[in-house]
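pinned: reference chain
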Amino acid sequence: MNRIGQKFKELRQYKRKGFIPFITAGDPDIETSKQIVIGLARLGADIIELGIPFTDPMADGPTIQASSKRALEQRINLHKILQMVKEIRLETDTPIVLFSYLNPILKFGYQQFSEKASEAGVDGLLVTDAVDHTALEIASILRANGLDLISLVAPTTSDKRLKTITANAGGFIYAVSRVGITGVQNETSKSAQVLVERIRAYTDLPIAVGFGISTQTQIEETWEYADAAVVGSAIVEEIERSLGHIDLVKQVVQFTKTLVPPVAIRQTKT
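pinned: its structure tokens
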């Protein structure tokens, strides 16, 4: 059991639900990004998702696309991100999942990526556009290095594919709350709860729901039926708003604290 499994075991033990913030690695620069991750871990994030900047992020809305652009302008790449994770590991044991499109992982090399990611202290990988045989191949290589392939499912995923996907998944299932791209939404989608119920018919893995969750109320609603809530665009928007701020890291962490229901916020020794 790696850090992801241990975290969800701890959450079940204390009858809690998980909070998973997302930021783009290297946004607005590698050092600030590292300090934001450490700040979120100390705030009490249960798992942290780090997006790998990509030139053509088709599943992402304008907010995440802009963050990728800012990171790429800083010449951020996988080598630098893995080094960043290695440095983060000196400060915290909070599980880290890399969120990527297939191309950067393919270019790096599946085997080399798995080995280097494991050495750096990464716990899991979510590849938005890896399906079928490709996903199976990546999952096998990751598993051999102690990492989980986090599987992404959507309301449009058929029951047949749900069965196949969950059979090879590890860590947790990432349930997309709605069809479309990432971005802040005023209301959570009713289809998310239906999807979670469908997933539970095929797996005992924890289920995290993301895409569009951006307020404390939406997190609380998600916790009623899922094991964790993922918040991305709202935090990335705050990073963008805080560009040039004298203490951007503190600003982003304090904003994130306002999003999470009080029951989940606790200062932790990391």
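why pinned: The longest helix spans residues 30-43. Residues 39 and 250 are 8 Å apart (CA to CA).
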